[in-house]
């Protein structure tokens, strides 16, 4: 009987799920839905998402996959937006209930998801933060920066929670029934105050600043298992191994980099140009504030060099929104996901000579 790997991507604007046949290594089924979960607070330039709506969309995506194949899922892998943060209570982070497609979980005692696009930590605020022991700068939208902001502006908020992680770390923790959170170095490096050379948080620096270090997840290497499903989920058997959540950037590069000399241009809610560094690459001693290149953990101790524009996908989203509005005015109903598919097909159909000429 065929066995499958379930892949989940907790994206900024949509959630994607796929089933991969273990024997043929081919994707047999996939489904995507927009989250429609944005909550914008212009007063503090916040960019948040409704965690309940995000997980509702995840459940809807899984429910669209063939039931007979979900019964034969033998592994679950999860990726998502790396810099964002969600808080929850250790023992009551979700409720498990019976749904039409089997058991599912719904968030409970969780915060909203503060996304990587959050702008509440302006340059003046960031300048007040302690200098990290890391080759990476700290920016607004990063998990640790957001916690520092709450320490200064809403300290009572943090006292309500005992665990924090990315949205995909949260999903993995709930699936495994974990009271704590484990995080790969891919996500930890994107939170700030994490030394990728030692694979440790800057605990001493953070403690001296009064940072609630109990909120920091435990760290594991990318590719490790986080645990097993604590119960049946949409028909997927209990005790199915679940991988620790990975960064969406690293996963998107891994899926199409056939050779280490390849460069990968990824356009989603942001845009990044990435390439793999040599295996003997040595990290810079400290971040260069003027550099347009950042180095993020990849797999097996290697690094990706990343140049991020942070606007490519927003441009695409605005284009899709404009086209959707025009189509509605003409009386034609077409979903955003269908428009994305058509735009991608058009791009793939362009002759390479036309691209060179452009």
UniProtKB/TrEMBL annotation:
Q: Which GO terms describe its molecular function?
A: kinase activity
Tell me the InterPro entries matching this sequence.
Answer: ATPase_NBD (IPR043129), FGGY_N (IPR018484)
Q: Where is the Carbohydrate kinase FGGY N-terminal domain?
A: 4-252
Cytoplasm recorded as keyword: no
Q: Which N-terminal residues, if any, form the signal peptide? A: none
Keywords assigned: Kinase, Transferase
Q: Does the keyword Endoplasmic reticulum apply?
A: no
**Any Pfam family:** FGGY_N
What family name appears in the similarity comment? Belongs to the FGGY kinase family.
Q: Which PANTHER family match?
A: SEDOHEPTULOKINASE, SUGAR KINASE
Q: What is this protein called?
A: Carbohydrate kinase FGGY N-terminal domain-containing protein
Naturally occurring in which organism (per UniProt)? Umbra pygmaea
């Amino acid at each position: 009987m065929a066995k499958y790997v379930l892949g989940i991507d907790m994206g900024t604007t949509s959630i994607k799920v796929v089933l991969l046949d273990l024997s043929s290594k081919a994707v047999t089924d996939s489904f995507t839905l927009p989250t429609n979960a944005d909550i914008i607070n212009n007063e503090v330039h916040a960019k948040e998402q409704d965690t309940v709506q995000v997980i509702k969309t995840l459940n809807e995506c899984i429910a669209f996959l063939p039931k007979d194949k979900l019964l034969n899922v033998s592994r679950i892998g999860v990726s998502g937006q790396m810099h964002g943060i969600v808080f929850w209570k250790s023992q009551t982070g979700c409720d498990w209930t019976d749904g039409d497609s089997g058991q599912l979980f719904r968030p409970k005692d969780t915060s909203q998801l503060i996304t990587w696009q959050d702008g509440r930590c302006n340059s003046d605020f960031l300048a007040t933060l302690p200098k990290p022991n890391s080759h990476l700068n700290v920016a607004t939208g990063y998990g640790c920066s957001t916690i520092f902001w709450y320490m200064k502006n809403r300290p009572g908020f943090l006292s309500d929670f005992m665990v924090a992680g990315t949205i995909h770390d949260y999903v993995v923790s709930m699936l495994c029934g974990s009271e704590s959170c484990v995080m790969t170095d891919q996500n930890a490096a994107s939170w700030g105050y994490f030394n990728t050379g030692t694979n440790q948080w800057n605990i001493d620096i953070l403690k001296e600043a009064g940072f609630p270090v109990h909120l920091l997840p435990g760290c594991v290497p990318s590719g490790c298992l986080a645990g097993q499903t604590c119960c049946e989920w949409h028909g997927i058997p209990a005790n199915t191994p679940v991988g620790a959540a990975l960064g969406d950037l690293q996963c998107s590069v891994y899926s199409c980099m056939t050779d280490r000399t390849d460069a990968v241009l990824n356009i989603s809610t942001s845009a990044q140009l990435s390439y793999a560094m040599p295996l003997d690459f040595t990290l810079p001693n400290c971040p260069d504030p003027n550099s347009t290149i950042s180095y993020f953990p990849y797999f097996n101790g290697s690094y990706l060099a990343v140049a991020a524009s942070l606007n490519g996908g927003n441009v695409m989203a605005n284009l899709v929104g404009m086209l959707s509005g025009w189509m509605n005015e003409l009386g034609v109903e077409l979903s955003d996901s269908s428009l994305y598919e058509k735009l991608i097909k058009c791009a793939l159909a362009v002759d390479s000579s036309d691209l060179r000429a452009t």
